[in-house]
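A note from the maintainers: we've had questions about how concatenated examples are separated. There is no special marker in the raw files; a new sequence line simply starts the next protein. For clarity in this README we add a label.
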Amino acid sequence: MDQLSVILQRFSMNTEVFFTGNLCGISHFNKEPNRGHLHLLLSGELTLIDEEGKSRLVNEPTVLFFPTPHAHRIIGNEDNPPELVCANIIYNESSSNPIANALPSMMSFKLSDDERLKQTADWLFEEAFHERSGQLPMINSLTNIFLIHVLRHVLDNNIMQHGLLAGLAHPQVSIVLLAIHKAPEQPWGLEEMAELAIMSRSKFADIFKRTVGQSPGDYLIDWRIIVAKDLLKKDKPVALVANAVGYENGSALARVFRKKLGISPKQWVEQTR
């Protein structure tokens, strides 16, 4: 399985369309926990004002993508009102999303820059602005597909220089990330990772940290905790979860949880419920 698929299987990243049509006046979008925003401009003209007060004029088919919570305003041009599809991006409430955290607070792409983005957007606009049976689930499904195309665009064009997506785009680091994601229970040491990347230990550790933003060991621990949380939410026994993510027993997993999260696995499960 490819790297992006593995990540998307582990993290909840869904869209929920809440507006389609011509925007008149000013719309405010609040900074809500575990939510981002996606705006697709079909036609017309708008002014986007971000939370720092910076403004930009948009007057051609464009994607405006806020991966993480970010307050902003959209002002429609009265003489040339924008025709929009707007969606919330909803993340798993129990954990931060490393894909979103790896991206800038705001990204924009002209639909003419990527044929796949444009094709999916055309399907989305076609559904959004023509009433048909099953319209809402179709729009939400197409928006989810569109979001994956956006992430592919980021990866294929090496837009990110740091973070998880930058690591997935790196030819050698991505091999190690995919192996860790696929088998977190393996005894991954620096030597094993470097060998997989066909590098010396020092060179691999340096490139990994500069690309991903943390050491290989810290990333491994964080990924194991992410997988453990997923299994714990499915009511798997702590001892079984510990073995599934590379720890000898439940006590070892509990020590890692307390060090990283300040609570035990059982306490974490109680809090999420």
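[label: protein 2]
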Amino acid sequence: MGVTSLAEAAREVLLCGDADEKARLARIAAARWRAGELSPGGGVAMPDRPSRPARPELLLPRDMPRRSFKGERGRIALLHSLAHIELNAIDLAFDIAGRFAGEALPRAFFDDWIGVGDDEARHFTMLQARLAAHGAAYGDLPAHDGLWQAAEETRHDLMARLAVVPMVLEARGLDVTPAMIGRLTGAGDHVSARVLETIYTEEKSHVAAGTRWFAFLCAERGEDAETAFHRLVKQHFRGALKPPFNRPARDEAGLPARFYEPLAASTAEKTS
């Protein structure tokens, strides 16, 4: 019997070890969900780790080679690192949809996260095309294996997953992407810069979805969202919240400074 539920489709995406095929399956699952061909499902076990292609070699973040983003090789390294992030983002989006498919959540919750997964799949494909234009492909360079830690750390707690993945990790993308766009524009790679502009615009909506559903769950459970966010990030996020923050973009995504700035200050105090 074929895939009939969102949870089954999410598992299929997560278990696909070919990067391009993973992106293709993600887009098919999103189209089927929007067409009403999939029920939410539930009771389908998500894998502890998603399947990955044989390449790139995955290293601990501390073992990653230091790279300059200057010149042609530097632009390839930048695009490759972004493609790796987007591939992980496909899995993160489908994991949250599939893992929590059996919970009593509005359909709009799954609409949002399947939409995010569809965006991430499209972003990955766009970056693959830019790598190909530079004579490269995803897998040509090593990549770090720290991105899935957030999913492992929050696999049993939807509020923690929302706090750490969209509201911390994706929000960080809003801080650093404008400088990347400027770097590519300055190097004359206007096509890649436009790809990053698309990603930047759509990532704001991803952070907004995380913030919106975090607030929804806090309201349902009678918790103060700001207090809960601070507690969960301190408990589950590994590392520091690093300024400078892109406050206008974060504000646009509905993530106020009072949520993240105190965490950055307290982290600095702990590590000083």
